[in-house]
User: Fold this.
Amino acid sequence: MLKSRYRTISPKGSGDINNQGVHQMDVARWGLGVDLKETPMTLGPVLQMDAKTETFTNNNAANAMLTRNYRKNFEVS
Assistant:
């Protein structure tokens, strides 16, 4: 049971929208006749990553989202 509920109870979980939402988007694209091979899309700026520091080199706003304040006893080490 925990395996299936992890997405909703974990501090890092994204809920059902990330679990099932992508499949619903596929159905919507299919219904609209959208072919992803022929339909370019952009979901934000192009980010460049520095692998050594594990930060973005060209976007401070993106760097600010790399971590967050975690609840006590749920810290990531």
User: Anything to note?
Assistant: The beta strands are 49-50, 55-56.
